[in-house]
Amino acid sequence: MKHHIEGSQAVAHAIALCRPEVMACYPISPQTHIVETLSRKVKAGEIGNCQFLNVESEFGALSVLIGASAMGARTYTATTSQGLLFMAEAVYNAAGLGLPIVMTIANRAIGAPINIWNDHSDSMSMRDAGWIQLFAEDNQEAVDLHIQAFRLAEELSCPVMVCMDGYILTHAYEVVDLPTQEQVDGYLPAFEPVQVLDPQDPVSIGAMVGPEAFAEVRYLAHDKHLRALEAIPRLSQAFQDIFQRRSGGLLKAYHTDEAETILLALGSVNGTIKDAVDDLRKEGWPVGSLALCAFRPFPSHALRHVVQDAKRIIVFEKDLAVGKGGIVSSDVKMALRGLPTIVDTVIAGLGGRPIPKASVINTVKQACLEGLEEPHFLDLNWDAINRELTRQQAQRRSGPTAENILREIGAPGASPI
Amino acid sequence: MPYQRVKFYQTGTFTVGNRLLDESNRTVQAGMDRTNSLNSGHRACQGCGEALGARYALDAVMRATHQQMVAVNATGCLEVFSSPYPESAWQIPWLHSLFGNAPAVASGVAAALRAKGRKDVRVIAQGGDGATVDIGFGCLSGMFERNDDVLYVCYDNEAYMNTGVQRSGSTPPRAWTNTTQAVGVDPGNPMGIGKNLPRIAMAHGIPYVATASVADLHDLEAKVTKAMNFRGARYIHIHVPCPLGWKSDPAHTIKVARLAVESGLFPLIEAEGGEVTDRTPIRKQVPVEQYLELQGRFKHLFHPRDERALEAIQAIADANIHRYQLLPVKA
Amino acid sequence: MERKPFAITLNPASSLANHTGNWRTMRPIYVDHLPPCNQGCPAGENIQGWLYEAEEGKYEQAWRKIMEENPFPAIHGRVCYHPCETACNRGQLDEPVSIHAVERFLGDYAIEQGWQVEAGVETGKRVLVVGAGPSGLSAAYHLARLGHAVTIIEAGPKPGGMMRFGIPQYRLPRNVLDAEIARIVAMGVSIHLNQKVDNLETTIQEGEFDAVFLAIGAHLSKRVDIPGRDAGRMIDVLGFLKGMDGRAVPKIGRRVVVYGGGDTAIDAARTAKRLGAEETILIYRRDRGHMPAHDFEVEEALEEGVLTRWLQTIRQVDNTTLTVEEMTLDEQGRPQPTGRIETLEADTVILAVGQEVDTGFLEDVPGLDISSDGVIQVDASMMTGRAGVFAGGDMVPAERTVTVATGHGKKAARHIDAYLRGSEYRKPSPNTVAAYDRLNTWYYTDADKNRQPYLDLARRRASFEEVVGGLDTDTALLEARRCLSCGNCFECDTCYGVCPDNAIIKLGPGQRYEVNYDYCKGCGVCAEECPCGAIDMVKEVR
Ligand SMILES: Cc1cc2nc3c(=O)[nH]c(=O)nc-3n(C[C@H](O)[C@H](O)[C@H](O)COP(=O)(O)OP(=O)(O)OC[C@H]3O[C@@H](n4cnc5c(N)ncnc54)[C@H](O)[C@@H]3O)c2cc1C
Ligand SMILES: Cc1ncc(C[n+]2csc(CCOP(=O)(O)OP(=O)(O)O)c2C)c(N)n1
Ligand code: SF4
Ligand code: SF4
Ligand code: SF4
Ligand SMILES: [Mg+2]
Questions:
Q1: Sorting pLDDT into bands at 50, 70 and 90, what band is C250?
Q2: Using the beta-carbon criterion (under 8 Å), do B107 and A97 form an inter-chain contact?
């Protein structure tokens, strides 16, 4: 049934259909609408015997799920940004213990300066924690990925983050085809854990492992991700069989055949990018685009297969590895090693900065005609930056950069009263 | 006290067992069939009070729950010495996640059990003082405040032992640790800082809070057993000497614990719903010095004698004695 | 294939593969130390051992354990001066265990139940015992248990020695004495009464005895030189007390003076009081603190109205008038005359100043060594200089008590047995004493001593009823349980409980414990906490 519905509500609805048993949540924008909705559903008895715990922190939230999952319960939480960092230790731990927890990341920038708007810095900070990371392009996919996530997580015994852009998706009203309980039940079998706390079979979970076996344990985690590379497309296909629509998978190509230049991105910006591709193609530019749905595991083979004939890949990424540049583009370069393909990095959309189609088109043209400096920052206000740098050079006690920049660009409320 | 207080000749109720006592009144530890939740082969130091306290507490829980119990463990000595790959000393379902999250993990286990409608299996969480009063305090307070059905047991050895004896919020005044060294003015841990977690736990108004000591097994078991009669959040704080960190003779582990109780420095109390309901009277009061001088971590108080410090520590004991009326009322 | 995740998930108790025993530098071992009570008991009773049985209400086992060493629990429970209690470690905690009271209870209970002891398998050897006092009877009993045929020859009309002709009935009722002697007779020991041995060698030859135990006691009252015109008013204490067992009660008049400071003097004074003397005065040359009598006996006498005159000697007796001189004590505590003289009236003066051995008939026994103070010398095996002739009790140099005499009887019996078998008896070398500082007294609960009931004073003054009552089944049990079990495991499970490494194996009731050296790290907590000091830490040798 199609609904005109807010992204968060839609996701909450999907989560409820997955019959979670324990949820523990801590509020943070822009994740709040998801957990508020779920708390209501639990209280209203709409999710069976599910337990919803209002906890004292994100660290507590994920920790609760670690315990619940080890006890054999299907578990869910959602967070973002500061919250994800606050739970960081548990994020690694859940993966290390192989607990199939599903977590929504309503992607948001990381402070300071504090910023509640969208980018991918938060998910990127946890990219090596051992979680599978799936990025949704729109709210329909967000809904669908969550359903796939539980099956994937539980099949592999590996936690999964479903990343959806904060506000852009979470707070957007779109038409979403909400699945039925029968469909979800047909797709998602009951959780059967590979290890569980059971008085009848009292194992010790979470042993201390020394140098003699740690590398092997780590390799086995890696192997799990290699198996995920096979499972993700398979489960996406299985999903399609039941739900009659394509969602998820490792990556989604758009006009990549015979494209000389391919734009690559994660998440919702792919909508803008596809529009830009359409415009550019109309103008005769041989461009295509590629949406990475799975960022962890990184689909190197699939990616290489799709882009091997292109001359140039332009990676648009909503994060910045400070002091280095692109995070996604680095992985892309690794995937394409040995090929002559040029890989450009465009840092865009940080802290909720819009990524206008025109800027995308201009950047593509610039890249193709002149090449891009590495990394390239989309729509940066160089005047403001230069003035601040000059000021800093002139004055030791130069004051807070963020506030200075705001004053520079004349943002409302920024000037001292 | 809930346990039998008979006048008992040679073998009072204070020995672990007592062949003259009715089976039902003997301690869990006296039983040939005790569960040994923490089994032999663990790597705790000689005379480790924490290893002992853990077996005492968990075996009592095992009896109270008819072996339907799950334990969550914080990082720390207990976790490290019990479960280094490839050998675990646990005979119970046991989960270790992190240093600071044991209470929350246990909340999760309890929530899962609730979701599955299983009332028979009970959850306990355990950790050292560092895990409890410091790094896991937020999670602990959350667990208390939500009144999750978890018994949390803190094994208080008064410092971060696993990392090599550093100060925690439970380190006593003037004690040496590697981060409160016995140098400079007022050597050792400063006076007047630190926190009293049992009282903080009480302030949460949870159903049951108690302190216990490895030196009084009957008291300890009675409290653990009682704790298991309640649903909701419960907290037991057990004093467990650490020969390594306290620089005491491994053979003196229980003796030292006993002197802590008998001097009044470690009061044995019980509280329900935030109100103190009972205390275990001191049997033979001793000056704090007798407790302190057995431990190398207080050596600097005696060479040369630091009268001021000794008086101040005695004052702490006296205040405890006064607050909880620890001296027996003379008949 | 292992289903569980590799390395992070482990099987229960897999740590048993890790033998931490190799960390050990010291090893705990279970030991049995000698409890001070046992060490203090002249009859060599395993007091801790029988209290252990009594604690559980196993009264017959307890009694039989006593009977291995001492055939007279009911008697000793009454008249023994219980040096065990002086030694008892509990005395340092609160009050000693009332060992004698429990012993007496067991003895009385055994009489009530009619429990008997079997004689041993006959050896065909014949042993002569001279004297049916505690020493002779004890030897006879032990010899009978060892299977020897024993004949006792006794000069008096009844067996018991000083237990009958000395110790008054109000302290040792005769039915108790008779019962415990009857049990020995029932074992086949024959007692020939009213026969005084006057030629030992002849008696041995005629009876074809293979060995002899002499236990004739010390029956000659010592004399003191008191000038007096009417020596008839002066009687000796043994004669006086012995007379109590006869048909005619001795005549003593209204005012009686007893001269002496020992237990015998006290008994005489208390007996005189019971015989109706209106005034009984005890005269002693030193003060109360220096009296050889046990203080509790003095106290009981005072309670009953016996008057005392400390620091006085009798200088002269003239008819009913006594001249006494006041004394003073010098620095060594010896009495010195002051010259201050007093007189008082007395109908009878009982002299109680000590006894000597009647060695007359022994003087011609070859090899026998009689020292100048009239006692017979024996070697470590209680044998006299005459091979095959042993001696014990009051007649040999030792403390003169029923208990020492009984102990001598046992010791001699064991040596006689060895002598008859042509071997040597070796007492197992005693363990080190479980001194008070071995104990961890925290574990013992406070428990007051269970007091024995006393006869009310009016009846004490007027009758020969027993003064001190016994414990009952309940109080005896409680009193037994006051025992700290010094130096001997009493299965309290403390070591089993306190081991942080579960390295103590509990073997089950009565089986005690074992250390599992695979896991024992040698921390020493068990030894430190053992309430009774039954674990030692010794150096590990590998
Ligand atoms: C009044 C009094 C009170 C006492 N109270 C206590 C007390 O409370 N507690 C305590 O422990 N001790 C007490 N004693 C001491 C105790 O009674 C003696 O130490 C003990 O009886 C000595 O035992 P025995 O077997 O060596 O000698 P005895 O008991 O003296 O027995 C010797 C026996 O040998 C017999 N005999 C002697 N010569 C011959 C012979 N030639 N042929 C055959 N038979 C012979 C005697 O008739 C006698 O029966 C008391 C003594 C007296 C006098
Ligand atoms: C987040 C985090 N910080 C620090 C540590 C290091 N660490 C491990 S155990 C420990 C000390 C444990 O102290 P306590 O809880 O008192 O237990 P004990 O070892 O004394 O029994 C520390 C500091 C850690 N594992 N995790
Ligand atoms: S350091 Fe202390 S707490 Fe840790 S194992 Fe050793 S004795 Fe036990
Ligand atoms: S306490 Fe018991 S074992 Fe110890 S001395 Fe006294 S009676 Fe003997
Ligand atoms: S601790 Fe108790 S059980 Fe162990 S040896 Fe000592 S008395 Fe026996
Ligand atoms: Mg600690």
A1: confident
A2: no
Give the domains, in start order, of chain A with CATH numbers: 2-243 (3.40.50.970), 251-377 (3.40.50.920)
Query: What residues does each domain of chain B span?
Result: 23-324
CA separation for the pair B174, B189 (Å, rounded): 4
Residues with CB in 5 Å of ion ligand 6: B 128-130, 157, 161
Cα B96 to chain centroid, rounded: 19
Q: What pLDDT is recorded for position B6? A: 42
Element (H, E) at A135: strand A132-135
Distance B47 CA to ligand 3 centre (A): 8
Q: B-chain residues within 8 Å CB-CB of A204?
A: 82-83, 88, 90, 94-96
Q: Using the beta-carbon criterion (under 8 Å), do C12 and A204 form an inter-chain contact?
A: yes
- Percent helix, percent strand, percent coil in chain A, to nearest 5: 45, 20, 40
Tell me which architecture the domain covering B23-324 has in CATH: 3-Layer(aba) Sandwich (3.40)
The full DSSP string for C396-428 is SSS--SHHHHHHHHHHHHHHHHHHHHTS---PP
Residues C339-395: tens digit of each pLDDT: 999 999 999 999 999 999 998 889 888 899 998 888 999 999 999 999 999 999 999
In degrees rounded to 5, what are phi and psi of residue A194? -85, -20
Q: Is the dihedral of CA A355, A356, A359, A360 positive or negative?
A: positive
Alpha-helix residue ranges (DSSP H) falling in chain B: 49-64, 77-82, 102-115, 129, 137-146, 197-203, 217-227, 243-246, 253-263, 288-292, 307-324
Task: Look at B98 and A89 and tell me if their CB atoms are within 8 Å.
Answer: yes
The dihedral over CA atoms of A31, A37, A39, A42, expressed in degrees to the nearest 10, equals -140
Instruction: Name, in order, each residue with C-beta under 8 angstroms of C531's C-beta and a sequence gap of 6 or more.
Output: B11, B15, C439, C440, C441, C442, C443, C444, C484, C485, C490, C492, C494
Residue B255 sits at the chain C interface (C-beta within 8 Å): yes
Q: From the CB of B129, is ligand 2 less than 6 Å away?
A: yes
Residues C318 and C204: beta-carbon distance below 8 Å? no
A381-394 average pLDDT score: 92
- Burial (Cβ within 10 Å: 0-12, 13-18, ≥19) of residue B266: buried
Q: Whose structure tokens read 């479960």?
A: B83
Nearest listed ligand to the Cα of residue B75: 2
Residue nearest to atom 37 of ligand 1 (CA): C216
Ligand 5 center to residue C529 CA distance, Å?
8
pLDDT at residue A360 in the model: 98
pTM: 0.92
Give all chains having 3 or more CB-to-CB distances under 8 Å with chain B: A, C
Interchain CB distance below 8 Å, B90 and A202 = yes
- What's the pLDDT at C447? 82
